Amino acid sequence: MKKLREIVSAKWLNKNLSKPNLIVLDASIESNASGKEFEEFDCTIPGARRFDLKNVFLDKSSPFPDTVPKPQEFELQCRRLGINQNSEIIVFENNGIYSSPRVWWLFNVMGHKEIFVLDGGLLNWIKEGFQTENEHLETFQTGNFKAKYNESLVVKLEQIKENTIQKKFLIADARSEGRFNGTESEPRRHLKSGKIPNSVNIPFQEVLNNGKFKTKNQLRELFEGKCGGEKELVFSCGSGLTACIIMLANKISYGNSLRIYDGSWTEWAELNNLKNII
Known about the structure:
By secondary structure, the chain is an alpha/beta fold. The protein contains 9 helices and 12 strands. The termini are far apart.
């Protein structure tokens, strides 16, 4: 079972779990942006280390949720997890595909390319009948990870504003069709729903099938239909998390853009005076 550029199968991981430089990260979170709680498990993949996306690996000083952590802080926390410069990292979560692409993107932003998402996550691992453990690995040597921040992958508000006029790129929005069209309330209820100019809607659920990514051909057809051949893409959602799901699907099948509008709709709506409860 070969490893692709971005994702690995449960069979591949099970076969390679004992590789000396391999590190498995559990990026499970408790709920989605709408507050729906995910299924909890009392087990994990053997040797997995807890990657706390919601409390550790984010910029705590930002007024917006889920924003990119400062490089020095990311580096420090990775070293505390025992991650090294030469680590080959596999990231997974308990509910198929939701938060793990965000971790994949963060490591790319920080210059680490040996990072892959476990397709189907813990759910598929268990379904395949592979071994599990009750506890995460918590004892390891401090790593020597070094962050090499690539700021070009983190798109800022001013770039989005300029693009409404210059139209240098197309924004792919991972929110639901109702939120994108302004007919459904935002989870952050003080914000009005709607869309950023020069954007298309690709709800993240459309790139998945039973908690795994659709086939490369299915994804390519989806992006070609939605984007009309445009490959200069910037990805957005409510807070920058599910944007990474469609960004990774795009990388698998259609284009090479890894650019995320990190503030996403929350920042755009907040700073453009779109504060009206629907």
